[in-house]
Amino acid sequence: MRYIVSNTEMKAIEQYTINNIGIPSVVLMERAAMSVRDEIISVLTKNDKVLVVCGVGNNGADGLAVARLLHEAGIFCAVYLIGDEDKATREWKLQKNIIDNIVDDNLRIVTTPDFNEYNIIVDAIFGIGLTRNVEGVFKTAIEQINSAKQAIVVAVDIPSGVNGETAKVMGVAVKADITVTFECEKLGTGFFPGKKYAGCVRIKHIGILSPVEAGNPRIYTHTLQDYEVLPKREAYSNKGSYGKLFVIAGSKNMTGAAQFCAESAYRCGMGLVAVLATAPQVVKAIQSKLPEAVIIDWNNDEFRSIIKNRAEISDAVVCGPGLGTGEVAEEIVKTVLEMDDRPVLFDADALNIIAKNNWGHLLKSNMILTPHLGEMSRLTGKSIEAIQQDLLGTAAEFARESKATVILKDAVTVIADESGVFYINSSGNSGMATAGSGDVLSGITGAMCAMYSKRTTGIENNSDSLQQADVRKRLASSMAVYVHGLCGDMARKKIGERPLLARDISKALEKVMGENTWKQLM
To answer: Computed over its alpha carbons, how large is the radius of gyration of the chain?
Structure first.
């Protein structure tokens, strides 16, 4: 697990490290520069020339320190300074003075560089604090960096021109191949379009306190090491030990949704999956493709009592994939909305039904919603464009008002509950933008909810049952999204992004959730 921080949080952590712990800012700067130097050396070839483009803030001071350290390593380095030196920071003036004292044939300050002469260009123009559009000499410099097609571009902390808080491009931004950031990834490179401009993000530890040490961390993302927090399996157990999931999904023309959902749940390690088959076609599809599933026959006169009775003996419920939006589907969703004693996940058509009937006030804290942008638009009344511009704010606001957990699906999925946004996903790829992918996620999430309710993870606070339940719900949601993305990444390695299908994502669960094969991913 690692943390993704806002500009405000990062600055507070840095100041706490400097003022309370006592590590001078110049020491942190030296460590940061050393980590950038090491990353550059790892991609250097013989006789490569490096250009470091520096602004006059602390990001530029980092760049000056990088140039000095590259020079010490015997690497030719040119420094291009832009900005008003009268407005330079104290740290920048310190680093510039050192550079002035050691300038020679192998370390030069240039005023009109030909960017195409250099094999590596270091972007140290702006840091994470940029809030206005890039103009003038800064805009020209960024355009020149981007025009140097043969050069490897290494950004210091964040690509210049990317807003560190919102990931927006402030008019123009550096297109980096590698971004070396310090201690924590920033929100600006966690989302698009900033994520696209950042290239490969390398997180370097330089002695700044972690968010956990400096205060209360707000947003995390999973790493492969988090396999350890998956629900444990024990030798002395039975299918009941691993949870029972109740799936209400599928309709006459949407038979695959129920099958994808149920099969994915089983692949996660579910003990038992029961499916309420709302149409004969759904029964046939599941019987032929997933005989392990328990089929609950549809009874038009008694479906409400069937749903309630089955839910009572299940650990979690999934409702909505491929369900349709007719009158019967509406009655099903309304019946499920009455549940308040177990995790209930609403997806796809169930979300559209909730939006259509303005049933948002019926949502509760035990419920999880998995809308994509279009579904979120219908739920909130906001335009898709407005949601895209503020994924974090939209998810947090809806979760706070509804008390439900919201898994807002986009190229970067975010999860929020009543307390605010707590997870940003870092796995997955564009091949997963395919029909049925969401049904697979619903199955994984439902399975995680059921399994976490039955098995321990080893990190709960046993003295507080409410906190324990909150931890389990958060982990069920976040691990489900992360695992779903890992499955897409594994499928991509096997067949590529263009031909990737939902069944490939579900099939990849065999390896991603396997105790032995998981370790091969690390």
So the answer is: 26
319 within 8 A of 347, measured Cβ to Cβ: yes
Give CA separation, 59 vs 7, 53, 99, 506, in Å: 14, 10, 16, 44
Q: Following DSSP, what letter does each residue of 90-106 receive, concatenated?
A: HHHHHHHHHHHHH-BTT
Q: What is the distance between the alpha carbons of residues 456 and 230, in angstroms, rounded to a whole number?
A: 9
Three-state SS for 253?
coil
Helix (H, G, I), strand (E, B) or coil at 168: coil
Contact criterion met (CB below 8 Å) for 389 and 366: no
In this predicted model, what pLDDT tens digit does every residue of 292-308 receive, in sequence order? 999 998 888 999 999 99
**Alpha-carbon gap, residue 486 to 505, rounded angstroms:** 9
Task: At 33, list the tokens.
Answer: 């520069």
Mean per-residue pLDDT for 487-513? Answer: 96
pLDDT digits (tens, 9 = 90+) for 397-409: 999 999 999 999 9
Could you give the 3-state DSSP secondary structure of residue 38?
A: helix
Kindly state the DSSP code that residue 310 receives in the 8-state scheme: H
What are 369's strand-pairing partners? 346, 406
Task: Output the CA angle 63-67-72, nearest 5 degrees.
Answer: 145
DSSP 301: T
Tokens found for residue 23: 């590590």
Start-to-end Cα distance in the chain: 14
Neighbours of 353 (CB within 10 A): 24
- Two structure tokens written together for 168: 């927006």
CA–CA separation, 398 and 376 (whole Å): 9
Distance from C-alpha of 205 to C-alpha of 211, rounded to nearest angstrom: 12
For residue 344, give Cα distances in angstroms to 265, 311, 421, 450: 14, 10, 20, 10
Residue with tokens 């599928």: 250
Other CB atoms within a 10 A radius of the CB of residue 140 amount to 13
H or E stretch covering 64: helix 58-72
CA–CA distance, 501 with 387 (Å, rounded to integer) = 27
Residue 57 carries which DSSP code?
Answer: S
CA 298, CA 27: separation in Å to the nearest integer?
69
User: Can you tell me the distance from the alpha carbon of 234 to that of 434, in angstroms, rounded to the nearest whole number?
Assistant: 36
CA distances from 319 to 188, 256, 266, 330, 333 (A): 34, 14, 17, 11, 7
Q: Within a 10 A sphere around the Cβ of 258, how many other Cβ atoms?
A: 33
**The overall pTM is greater than 0.90:** yes
pLDDT in tens, 20-30: 999 999 999 99
